[in-house]
Design goal:
Elements lengths: L7 E6 L1 E2 L2 E2 L7 H13 L2 E9 L3 H14 L12 E4 L21 H10 L4 E6 L6 H10 L3 E4 L6 H10 L3 E2 L16 H7 L4 E5 L7 H11 L4 E4 L11 E5 L2 E5 L5 E3 L17 H10 L5 H16 L2
Parallel strand pairs: 1-4, 4-5, 5-6, 6-7, 7-8, 8-9, 9-10
Antiparallel strand pairs: 2-3, 11-12, 12-13
């Protein structure tokens, strides 16, 4: 794949500046505008991410992305579509609408891949969902990168998923139940699994600095990727919005949460309001990341995962 790699490569972008890639009224012009806005902010390539939605949204929006990926000035910056859902499991669905979750289905995935003209490059699913292991094998045979996310799978299931070909973790440390057993739990297991590269949202809200440090030690620089997980409302001013089938709030700190979910110091996050450059600035502020480290986790590693 011939792609501009002069800046950051973001594997998870749900939208930006009010353009939601999973919205039922998404337009090609919005994709153009988001691509331009991200390029201006340092992201030279990204994976537009469609999240759990009504089936009609996938059927409508995937062909629009396929069209965008044929267009000069846009296709050079689209690194392939990322499907995050709907093959996920509660209670780790996070901001993903429960009513649209569905069991993994190879025929449905194939239909979506045809609509996308083969542009789906990453599939996030919950490995414990019935049929997930079979879908992992099926998708990997097509050259799709399968990522584990929004799940509570045990050690044995995670091992089976990796044996089947899963190679990535979606925003590890997030998209999971707020309370977990001390051990074992899926976070430790995925950190310890050397065959898995892990993505982390380093926006200063999703993960504390100490977790990022421990994760880096566990994964090493070669298996650590930073993503923005930018929401469709990222870049908009603080306030109340409707996003991902929920009422959400952008707080003055730029944290995005499901309205009314902040209890006992915990809140359900609904993506980030950061770009990948913002995430890199946050990592740099921690004092133990060199410039080359940032290039490794924000450019080289995602390029390797996508085979570009």
């Amino acid at each position: 794949m011939n792609i501009d790699t002069s800046g950051w490569i973001d594997l998870q972008v749900n939208g930006f500046l009010g353009a939601d890639f999973s919205a039922p009224d998404l337009t090609l012009q919005q994709i153009r505008d988001v691509t331009t806005a991200l390029r201006e902010r340092g992201t030279s390539a990204y994976c537009p991410t469609l999240v759990t939605s009504a089936p009609g949204v996938f059927e409508r929006n995937l062909p629009i992305f396929a069209q965008a990926m044929r267009e000069d000035g846009v296709r050079e910056h689209l690194a392939g579509i990322h499907l995050e859902g709907p093959f996920l499991c509660p209670p780790s669905n996070g901001a993903h609408a429960l009513r649209w979750l569905t069991p993994p289905d190879a025929a449905r995935f194939d239909a979506w891949q045809r609509l996308a003209e083969g542009a789906i490059r990453i599939l996030t699913l919950a490995p414990e969902a019935p049929g997930a292991i079979e879908l992992i094998r099926h998708a990997v045979r097509q050259g799709v990168v399968v990522s584990l996310g929004h799940h509570l799978a045990g050690d044995d299931v995670i091992a089976r998923a990796v044996d089947a070909g899963a190679t990535l973790c979606t925003h590890l440390g997030n998209g999971i139940a707020n309370t977990l057993p001390r051990h074992p739990n899926p976070i430790w297991t995925q950190l310890a699994e050397d065959r898995l590269t892990a993505c982390f949202i380093a926006d200063g809200h999703h993960l504390p600095a100490n977790f990022l440090r421990v994760a880096r030690r566990a994964k090493g620089l070669d298996r650590f990727i930073v993503v923005s997980d930018s929401a469709g409302i990222a870049g908009l001013p603080p306030g109340s919005y409707h996003y991902m089938d929920s009422d959400v709030v952008i707080e003055p700190s730029r944290r995005i949460i499901i309205a009314g979910s902040a209890k006992n110091g915990l809140a359900t996050l609904a993506g980030s309001s950061s770009t990948l450059a913002d995430c890199m600035r946050h990592l740099a502020s921690l004092g133990d990341w060199s410039e080359d480290d940032l290039i490794q986790v924000g450019r080289r590693n995602p390029a390797r995962v996508l085979g570009i």
